[in-house]
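User: Dolichol phosphate-mannose biosynthesis regulatory protein, Dicentrarchus labrax:
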Amino acid sequence: MTSRGQQSPSDASCPPVLATGRRASGNVSTQHLSETEMATGVDQAVGMSLVVFSLLLFTYYSVWVIILPFVDGDHVLHKYFLPREYSVILPGIAAVVLLLCIGAFTAVVMWKSRKPKKVD
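Assistant: Predicted structure for Dolichol phosphate-mannose biosynthesis regulatory protein:
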């Protein structure tokens, strides 16, 4: 096997090496992962809470932007939502913050990976 994970003609009969360093035997998807490779209960709980939060946020925003304009202005449903102009302002601010975080992360990674110049 070459360093890039491609099989050479001499080891075509060997099963491929998995990312864990083990050789695949049979159907890779049916192999059991060791305990160190599986998500813990805390990881699963955090992941599920993020999914639930995202679904609630998406539902709230969808109702606010799509359904609320067709509801009368004096209906009780309007007291649970901000004014309509915030439906554009808040995602805009979130997008700017996200782009700033991505830019800062990229700058830090590039700064840490730079090689010092040689002094003659």
